[in-house]
Structure formats: C-alpha cells, structure tokens
Q: What sequence folds into this?
C-alpha cells in the first residue's frame, strides 16, 4: 500500500489528516465564538453535540484522525532519525529561510497532545462522557449530568483559574507554530505548489493560523476577565 | 590583495564506514585570502606529508563548481558559508584571523564515510539508473526547432538540470532526505516533451529507489534549498509529489 510503504504516501497521510484537523479546529473555533455573544446559543450548540449518534460518530472520526496523525508522526520521525545516521554534526547552523517550527514539529505536536489531554479532562470528561455513560446505563453523579450540556458553566469554571489560562495559551502558542508550518507544508506535500504559490501559501498559512488561534485565545481571555469582575 | 590569515582547523578523521571517527586539530599560519578552501587543504596535506603524517582525504575534481565532487560540511553548512557556491568556489577571505573552522563529512545513513571527509554517494547513481533517462531510440539528430518548448518551461527544466548531484541537500536535511536531488532529476525530464511519456513511471521508479536506499521522509524544512550550491527550488519537490500521487492514483 503506497500510503504506508512510500515516503510521499506517508506524507500524504500526514497532510490529509493534518488538513482535516485544521478544518475541525476552524469549526471548533467558530463554535467557541458563539459563547462570547450568547450563553444560550452556546449551550444550544453543546446540547446539539451531546451524546447523540452524529456527534459521537464525529468524535470517533476525529479521534481516528488524531491517532493516525500521531502514529505517523512518530513513525516518520523515527525513520528520519535513522536516515540521518548515527553520527551527529558537531557544528550546526539554521539557514534564514528555514522556519524553526519546521524542524520541531514533533515537539510542538507533543505539546499539543498534552494540551489536548488537559482539554479533554476539563471539558469532554464533564460533558459528552457522562452523558454517554448515562446512556449506556452506568450510574453518573446527577450533579455532573445536570451540567453536562452547560458549556458556558464549564468555560467559566476552567478559565477562572490563572494556571489554566496560562496553560491553554501555551498550548495555543504551540499550535500556532505547528500550523504556520503545517498548513503550507501540507499543500507542498500534496503537490499543490509552484514558485508563485509557495509564497502565497505561506502567507495564507500565517494569516489563517493567526486568525484561528487568536479567536481561541480571545474566548479564553474574555472569560478570564469576566471572572475577575 | 587579500590579507593573510591564521586560524585553527578542526577536521574529522575516520578510517572507514564502521570505524569510530574523531576530530584532529591543525594550526594554519599565514594563509593568503585568495587561496581557495581546497587549496588551503592542499597546503595542509603537503605539510602533513612532509611531516610523515597521513594526509586528510577529501573528494574533489573540477574545482570550478560543475562536477559536484567536493563535499565538505564547513562550520555547520554544506559547501561552507557562501550561498549558491560549492566548496571549491569558497575562498579563505570569507574567514577571519583567529577563527576555528570545523570541517565534517556529509553525515547521512545513505552516504557512508569512505575515509575522513570522503563519503560514498553511489546511492545517487542507483537512483539515476532507476529512471533518470529517456528510453527511446532517438535516431538521427533532429533540427533544434523540431520540438517547440515554451521559454518558461525550458527555463524551469534548465534550472532543475543545473543540479550537480553533490548531495549537499541530503547533508543539510535533518531527515536525511534526498528529495531535492530526486525531484530535480525527475523534473529536468518530466517538464519536457521528450520526458513526458515516461513521466509517471519515472517519478515512481526514482522515488521508490530513494526510499529503498534508506533516505528519509521530506518534511519541507527547506534546508536543502537554502544550502544547494545551484539554488534548486523545492517547487521541484512539489512537482515530484504531484507526479507520484497521480501515478499511484492511476494504478
Ligand atoms: C489539532 C491538532 C493538529 C493539527 C491541526 C495538525 C496539523 C498538521 C499539518 C497540517 C501538518 C503538515 C503535514 C505535511 O507536512 O504534509 C502536520 C505535520 C506534523 N504533525 Fe501535526 N497536527 C496536529 C497535531 C499533532 C500532534 C498531536 C502531533 C504529535 C506528535 C503532531 C505531529 C506532527 C509532525 C511530527 C508533523 C511533521 C510531519 C511531516 O511533515 O512529515 N501533530 N500537522
Ligand atoms: S539539488 Fe542541489 S544540493 Fe542537491 S545534489 Fe543537486 S546541486 Fe547538490
Ligand atoms: S570540485 Fe567540482 S564542484 Fe567542487
């Protein structure tokens, strides 16, 4: 199968899962923005994306994308280290046109995983998971269940803590670096690039990523400030 | 006239692909600035020979930037500090009096060290043999204008063809990937009408050979392009990806 036994095929898997994750992030970001304007509206979205079949199916696909992306990330990195050989250079220097992020995608990805774990703990384990367990007949604390679709409550709770705000912002920072490289890199991998589009894609990557990350950060900061007053 | 400089050389010594290597340090005195880097190593080797020591082994041939044999990783850069130039085109005036200059071989699993600074780049020949040619009987020479090629395409093919197969792209790549070389050698033919009929087959064959020889997966860091002495562009890599993906989707 060329998607696993050729270098370009493996990169295609990386880029397709990566782009799908970017689309998910865009959707997620748009949903978060709703919370700024209307608490009811946001909770309606949360209700809609509770433990029903379509939301669960989407969650499973999303998890699969993540798992494939991460497995391939480690696999590629391992192969690449092997291809580099055992002996390291004594002196190295990074040319100006080489982005720092491009050489540290795995580290950035690892920060994203840690942030993701934190995020699942703060939100998913209190929202979709209890509903799901309840539906499957497990006993769930009624208090937890009654707040399961109250997304705004969980946002307020999480971002009243300075520590959480800082952790989430670091997470978003890592995501920014990962995506400013990842976005155009995915286009290059899929062969959708030439001398003109190289700079266009890089510009689009920077702008798009900055907008997505800034909107995520905005929600966090607004709720943090609200918690102070 | 350039002024003379004195500096310290740290040079990698290694007896064979499996041997343990180490750095040797040499003091170079009063080297004129218009000495080329390779001439400077010649001076070192003459000194070593006259002292009864073993000279430093390094690859070189044309010494005018066209053969791609010279392969030195100088102070963290393949082909040294200059851009768009090979090791043999570097002059000592680029360095300062009192500098320490570290010289290493290309380090990559695909390029095992033969001795000291000389590495085995026959992997590139194997990739060329896998598809870097046009396999048709050309017959008698045709008129130059029998096949018309638009100027921008001819230029792009020519830029790809300027790759001299030196391997600096592999040496620069943290993933030990040979994509810049392979993509240049695929593009120089795939862009032209003569290479088109076998384009997809060529992309598959040369890329598979590259994978088989243990080169890494390209993650688009662009270090290759920055260090390439011929400034070959990574847009060739996009073209190779495109041709390879098209070929696989057709299968
Ligand atoms: C929301 C989460 C994520 C998104 C949107 C995302 C997106 C992307 C994109 C678009 C690429 C470029 C693909 C290409 O160059 O063809 C990429 C590459 C990469 N990602 Fe992610 N990623 C995410 C999470 C992760 C995680 C959790 C890891 C785990 C370690 C990771 C590791 C990597 C690595 C190592 C690469 C470079 C691989 C390569 O270019 O060959 N990513 N990512
Ligand atoms: S692409 Fe550039 S660096 Fe790579 S082998 Fe060709 S000339 Fe050398
Ligand atoms: S010796 Fe021929 S390119 Fe340097």
A:
């Amino acid at each position: 199968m060329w998607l696993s036994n050729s270098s370009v095929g493996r990169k295609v898997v990386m880029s397709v899962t990566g782009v799908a994750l970017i689309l998910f992030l865009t959707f997620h970001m748009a949903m978060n923005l709703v919370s700024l304007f209307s608490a009811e509206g946001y909770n309606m979205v949360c209700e809609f994306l509770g433990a029903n079949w379509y939301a669960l199916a989407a969650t499973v696909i999303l998890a699969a994308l993540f798992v494939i992306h991460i497995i391939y990330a480690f696999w590629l990195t391992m192969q690449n280290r092997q291809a580099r050989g055992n002996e390291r250079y004594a002196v190295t220097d990074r040319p100006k046109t080489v982005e720092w992020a491009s050489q540290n995608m795995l580290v950035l990805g690892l920060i994203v995983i840690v942030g993701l774990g934190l995020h699942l703990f703060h939100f998913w384990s209190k929202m979709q998971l209890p509903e799901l367990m309840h539906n499957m007949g497990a006993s769930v604390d009624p208090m937890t269940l009654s707040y399961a679709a109250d997304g705004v409550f969980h946002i307020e709770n999480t971002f009243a803590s300075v520590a959480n705000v800082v952790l989430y912002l670091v997470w978003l920072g890592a995501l920014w670096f990962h995506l400013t490289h990842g976005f155009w890199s995915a286009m290059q991998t899929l062969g959708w690039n030439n001398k003109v589009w190289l700079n266009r894609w890089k510009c689009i990557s920077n702008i798009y990523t900055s907008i997505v990350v800034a909107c995520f950060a905005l929600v966090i900061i607004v709720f943090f400030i609200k918690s102070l007053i | 006239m350039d002024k003379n400089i004195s500096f310290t050389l740290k040079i990698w010594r290694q007896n064979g692909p499996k041997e343990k290597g180490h750095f040797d340090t040499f003091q170079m005195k009063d080297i004129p600035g218009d000495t080329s880097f390779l001439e400077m190593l010649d001076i070192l080797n003459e000194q070593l020979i006259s002292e009864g020591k073993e000279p430093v082994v390094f690859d070189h041939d044309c010494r005018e930037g066209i053969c791609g044999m010279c392969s030195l990783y100088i102070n963290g850069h393949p082909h040294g500090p200059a851009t768009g130039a090979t090791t043999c085109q570097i002059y000592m005036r680029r360095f300062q009096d009192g500098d320490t200059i570290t010289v290493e071989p290309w380090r990559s699993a695909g390029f095992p060290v033969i001795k000291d600074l000389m590495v085995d780049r026959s992997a590139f020949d194997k990739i060329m043999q896998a598809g870097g040619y046009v396999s048709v009987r050309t017959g008698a020479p045709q008129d130059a204008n029998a096949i018309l090629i638009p100027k921008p395409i001819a230029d792009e093919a020519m830029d790809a063809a300027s790759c001299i197969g030196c391997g600096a792209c592999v040496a620069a790549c943290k993933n030990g990937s040979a994509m810049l070389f392979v993509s240049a050698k695929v593009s120089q033919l795939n862009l032209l009408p003569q290479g088109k009929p076998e384009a997809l087959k060529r992309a598959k064959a040369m890329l598979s050979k590259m994978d088989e020889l243990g080169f890494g997966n390209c993650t688009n860091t662009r270090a290759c392009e920055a260090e390439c002495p011929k400034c070959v562009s990574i847009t060739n890599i996009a073209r190779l990806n495109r041709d390879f993906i098209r070929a696989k989707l057709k299968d």
User: Anything to note?
Assistant: The mean pLDDT of chain B is 95. Residues B 60-63, 65-70, 86-88 surround FE2/S2 (inorganic) cluster (ligand 3) (CB under 6 Å).
